[in-house]
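Hi R.,

Here's the chain you asked about this morning:
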Amino acid sequence: MSAAQTTAADLPPAKQNTSPGAGAGTGTGTGTGSMGSEPGKAGKTGKAARKGSGATPWLLLAPCLLVIVLVMGYPLFRLVSLSFQSFGKSELWGFKDAQFVGFDNFSKILGDGEFWTVVLRTVVFAAGAVILTMVIGMLIALLLQRVSGWVKALVSIALVASWGMPIIVATAVFKWLFDADYGVLNYLMSKLPGVDMIGHNWFASGPQGLAVIMLLVVWGAVPFVVITLSAGLTQVPKELEEAARLDGAGAWGVFRHVTLPILKPVIVMLTTLSVIWDMGVFPQVFVMRNGNPEAEFQLLTTYSYQQAFVVNDYSGGSAIALVTVVLLLGVVAVYMRQMLKIGEVE
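And the predicted structure, written out as tokens:
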């Protein structure tokens, strides 16, 4: 029998409500009451859900926040307290009590011309490293979009290998490459017509030596930038690029007006992280100069270390480190502002 031939008589009778006093009027009133109570229950449930959702993120973040407070809270508190004290070798060994000196340590370092020279050198070093990292990383990321699969795989493996190499090992490799007597770079450059680089000491002057260290920093930072930008490039709609080409835009026009705006959040994030990392460079300089960087190689991190652990002026070194933290917080503030602007536009 088909569904069309099925009649109401063939259907099973509806189950009757046999509860006492369940008349027609009563049944209708009960149904209406249950319907009327649903909005109130839904409102209470919604309020409870909103209350729960407000506390849930903090509960999930609590373990991470606790670890951050335990790992960074006390060192940062100790750094701030030392920067406002007179704390040297005598205070370290307990022969004298640390004395509160207010802003004397900050007045001392801010009035020191050498400190401002180190600040300028650090800013120039970080800016050069960030620009090279972002430009080279962008070029490699764009290149990976246009090569075959096996070439892309080989380049990706090489990038991950260089990224995973320990800093000490990478620094030792670069010391060998730029060695004055046995350096591979001097040997290869001397093969060029009219070039004699045998015995050339790249660390005889600060600018050349810092340029070598900058290349080391860039070499270690480029893989992360390339991998991140490659992931971002996959989100660029091909339709927009084709439409721009149809409108007469060249390769640079497509990159400038289509690719770059879409990648802006990623570029802002990578640039900010690169600035923070490159202003905090320490092991590359320290190991490259055999644990005793000369005055021409001092950056804020090594300068703070020298003042604290070489000169034994722990309070002065803490004040320099705190100024560095404040500078980095300024960079983070700029980053947050840019990200909020991008969020408002979107």
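The chain is about 75% helix and 0% strand.

Let me know if you need anything else.
M.
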